[in-house]
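Quick question, first post here. What does this chain look like in 3D?
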Amino acid sequence: MKEQYIETNTVQSEPYLAARALNLLPILYGERGKIVVKTYAYFRSVDNRIDKTTESIEEKLGFLQRQSQVIKRRPVPHPTTHESMYLNLPWDIFPEQTLKSIDTQAQILLSTFVDDVRHFGFQPRNYRETRHYNWRTLLPCLEAISLIINGKPMKVTSRFMHLLNSCNSIGSLQDFEEDVDRKLLQVPFSRDEITLIARCTNEEEKRARALEIYNSGRFEAEKARHIDTLKTHNNAFMDLDIPFWQKAVCTAYLTHRAIKKAQTHLMYPFIPPSYTPQTAWQHQD
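> Answer (accepted):
Ran it through. Tokens below.
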């Protein structure tokens, strides 16, 4: 019979190789590896709940406030399977300071779910907002894993932060069509484009405007820019304070990812509105 940590996670069915690879951690790191897998399963359950469009924004924000209490390991009424799993993890194996750092990373990650909820309905982000969102999405995951299995933070560099931004941006481009169906824009827009989208009178107009901008050449330009960053900084893992074999595996994976993502194309059909986008979309920080 499989152990409970396998039964309560969705890692094995994940479409992403990096996520599925987490199942190796219990073999390599024992109890600490199980904690990583269970923590991933918990946050995946939160993400799946937020993706449901049947709940109101207020209901989703209330749910996330409840999860903030779970992350602080405070009891909640009628805990779900995943909440109970997270609350009952053997957190006492970590030194107090390490545990505080893990909690901080978990709260940062949770804040990205709140950000998503507030951006439902085709509310666009600018380049700076997108970049910070990308950092708050990936960095807490990697820092928490390092804290759990290595017992220390990774000591990130500026090169590594550039790499994380492009990694998550490539993922957002890959998921662009799915996100549009969820009424969510995870890709960046210029200030002028945000103003134009804000002038739309309903969600369908906002959707059409956003799709037109990215079908007018933006998708390929953003893809090329971020793939170039992946190629330039894919060895940034070598700068981190983690074991060499972890650096090598991550670097090899990113090299594979850059090659694979170069084949990603935007295929979403749409009826363009009367507006014809100009060059205002070009990258702005």
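The chain has two domains: 1-93, 122-285.
Residues 1-93 form one domain.
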